[in-house]
Amino acid sequence: MSSSPEFPRIVSLRPSPHASPSLQSLRSMTLAAAFNAFKSSNLISWKHSGRLQQTLAGCIERTGKALHSGEVSTVKLWPELAGQGRYFDFRSNLIPASVDFAEESPLCTTLCKNGFRIRTVEHLLSALEAVGVDNCRIEIRNLNPEDHDVEVPIFDGSAKEWVKAIEQVGLKVAKDQSGNNCEKMAPYVNEPMHVWRSDSFVAAFPSQKVQITYGIDFPQVHAIGCQWFSAVSLDNSLYSEQIASSRTFCVYEEVEKMRNAGLIKGGSPENAIICSASKGWVNPPLRFADEPCRHKVLDLIGDLSLFAQFGSQGLPVAHIVAYKGGHALHADLVRRLSGMI
Ligand SMILES: [Zn+2]
Questions:
Q1: What does the angle CA 97 – CA 38 – CA 333 come to, to the nearest 5 degrees?
Q2: pLDDT tens, 91-109?
Q3: Residue 288: helix, strand or coil by DSSP?
Q4: I want to staple 187 with a disulfide (CB 3.0 to 4.6 A). Which of 44, 112, 149, 191 is the partner?
């Protein structure tokens, strides 16, 4: 693999004559824009990962109920050219899976552009990032063609359905419009950094590989209690075997409050593990004794994937240590890495 330094050979710049106008605008990023996107800073250095950018070998379509809205939606994943990255296509509105379009929302990660909003993107993006689907068009639709809001189906509350679907269809090396392979760039953290809100924090320390350590603490809910999970040398198989099947969890005594706030309308014992403060797990068995903590790692990977651009790796190469984090705090780390905060 070339060790040539700064400039990644990644972007396809010429709009395809067959592309829709909006897709053309997405592809009309200038060379300068791509170059700037990979400019290293004090905080991070973009380096070659030693891997080529990939995409799906075929299409995937899945339909299911959404957690918060309770509505049914369909997601179709399409192979995409190298350099295009991952982006949603909702009623022909293209929304890059980038922190630039992340909107703060309770209990999920939301992307929003020009009034079109896609909720609960984190489990799908977690699977795509971890398994190595670097370039992908994510078409999403729901039953009402007038809706400006849509939500990714929840399935069993984990990323298992997406990982299984990706493994079934397979991956291939992505080519750009000229038919060239593109190297995948990875962001290396240069110096310790952290973001925090009240008693929660996420920190990233320089490391030569991706490591994640996550802690949660629910002193009032004894069956969850204090848990730590560490993923050392995170790779595809560790993700698929140890993280992807960990489900969303919630505290039984808070369900009513969340429902009153218009959330989890589609929540059920089939798509979340539910824990009562007084009675313990409502719908056992768990898939792992520390399944809640592993699910936080799954969420973190999905949220940090929003740092990806032009088919690069989103997950920073660092030892990431998180404690009692949530989607908003995860997104803050991405903003910090981007120099936005
Ligand atoms: Zn989640």
A1: 55
A2: 999 999 999 999 988 889 9
A3: coil
A4: 44
pTM: 0.91
Q: How far is the CA of 94 from the centre of ligand 1 (A)?
A: 24
Quote the ligand 1 centre to 188 CA distance (angstroms).
Answer: 25
**CATH 3.30.230.20, applies to 51-184:** yes
Q: Please state which of the four CATH numbers 3.90.800.10, 3.40.50.300, 3.40.50.880, 3.30.1700.10 is assigned to the domain occupying 185-337.
A: 3.30.1700.10
> Where exactly are the structural domains of the chain?
51-184, 185-337
Rg (CA), the chain: 19
Ligand 1 centre to CA of 220 (Å) is 21
Q: What is the pLDDT of residues 233-285, one digit of tens each?
A: 888 899 999 999 999 999 999 988 888 888 888 988 999 999 999 999 999 99
Task: Tell me the C-alpha to C-alpha distance, in Å, between residue 74 and each of 53, 151, 155.
Answer: 26, 9, 12
CA nearest to 17, candidates 27, 2, 5: 27
Ligand 1 geometric centre to CA of 299 (Å): 5
Distance, CA of 50 to CA of 107 (rounded, Å):
36
Q: Do the beta carbons of residue 324 and residue 183 sit within 8 Å?
A: no
Cα separation, 229 vs 129, in Å, equals 20
Q: What span, in angstroms and rounded, lies between the C-alpha atoms of 303 and 43?
A: 19
User: Which candidate, 270, 265, 271, 221, places its Cα nearest to that of 248?
Assistant: 271
- Supply angle C-alpha 190, 191, 192, rounded to 5: 140
